[in-house]
Amino acid sequence: MWRRSYYQDYFPADLLVRWLSYSFQHNKHLFERRELSFTLDNEVYVRYQSFESAEDIRKVLIQKLPVKIDIGAVYNYPPSSQSLVTLFTPVEREFILDIDLTDYEEVAIVNSEDEVDLCDKNWYIIAAAVEILDNALREDFGFRHILWVYSGRRGIHGWVCDERARRLSDECRDSIIEYLTVRLPPGLKEISVQGENFNTLLDDSMKQWNTLGVPFLKRSFDYLYPLFVKYIVQNPRFFTDSNHLKKYLSLLPSNYTAQIEYLIESSTADIDLWKRIEEILSEPKKSSYYGFIVCLVFHYLYPRLDANVSRHMNHLLKSPFCLHPKTQRVCVPVSVKEIWNFQPSRDAPQVSDGNLHHLGNDEKFLHAEKIMKDFIENFEREQKLETINTNEQRLLDRGDFV
């Protein structure tokens, strides 16, 4: 069976253990208390699995042949012994992020019945979200070790692995998600679902939603606006086949709606058309109507996070290098530097009987392993340096270092 062969010969269990040990000295104590869970055939779900080594993991994978592997929290006791202890509680876990194109269905410009093809054609949404979030996590929160992993189907997962991030309480995790979440004015949210007219809400909504007064959101808008023009406005479907713009135009007073609809019908150059629309909207009340542009850009491109995934320490998330149960594509790590060049159908190997023997020489699979290995080595290098500096400081404090 090809799944057995994948787990036996290709799944990098050694990298998984090394990553989740978080120690340049390869201390197994942390990993032994980490929960792994398996989804088996017929949707049988096996939780609270824990292991001591890569060999142990590989042995169980070959035996159980899970269709999916999830990673959970580190507990105060090994999860496999949780039924034997009185107090069993999570003590640390990466801060995780989940972005899925399913949450963008009403704004995706290109549709496809094939889900991986859909992800290919709308990857700009994922790439933009990754760069926005990666920047915020580094610049605004000071995190340094962030691993991004393609979900195997329609999205991407972020793992913030700094020790400070792993030890965040649920309350702190919730606060970070609140900081990263943009809530559009109520009228805009409802219009995207109901398609009704909310003319009377526009002025009040925009006055209350002073987005660009927040530095992070100002940075986000400055980054997203050129992408909005390139991928949305310059796509002919935005002004023709798509109903999204018309729904938003229904927010405007009727005289503006009529004027803009006339422009859409009479114009052939999309970029010039968009510039003219901006001019019309900003003429009478620039602060209010400019807010409409900001809302439109954020509605199409700002990251839409599954907050429940991030809020709780004990939440489970698919392991890197596991196979997505529906597509059989490998959940490969992706470098932020290469995020715009990544193409799921090309860069995430699909495992089956027919191609498994090529996987060991597959450049994309080997490249994904290198990304993972480089991430681990960078973490271990910095950890080792911090340990040396800490030890030297202790010697200095004691007067033992000359």
UniProtKB/TrEMBL annotation:
A Pfam family annotated for this UniProt entry: DNA_primase_S
GO terms of molecular function: DNA-directed RNA polymerase activity; metal ion binding
Keywords attached to this entry: DNA replication, DNA-directed RNA polymerase, Metal-binding, Nucleotidyltransferase, Primosome, Transcription, Transferase
Signal peptide positions (record): none
Alphabetical list of Gene3D superfamilies matching this protein: DNA primase, PRIM domain (3.90.920.10)
Coiled-coil boundaries: none
GO cellular component terms, A-Z: alpha DNA polymerase:primase complex
Documented EC number(s): 2.7.7.-
Biological process, per Gene Ontology: DNA replication, synthesis of primer
Family: Belongs to the eukaryotic-type primase small subunit family.
Protein name: DNA primase
Natural source organism: Galdieria yellowstonensis
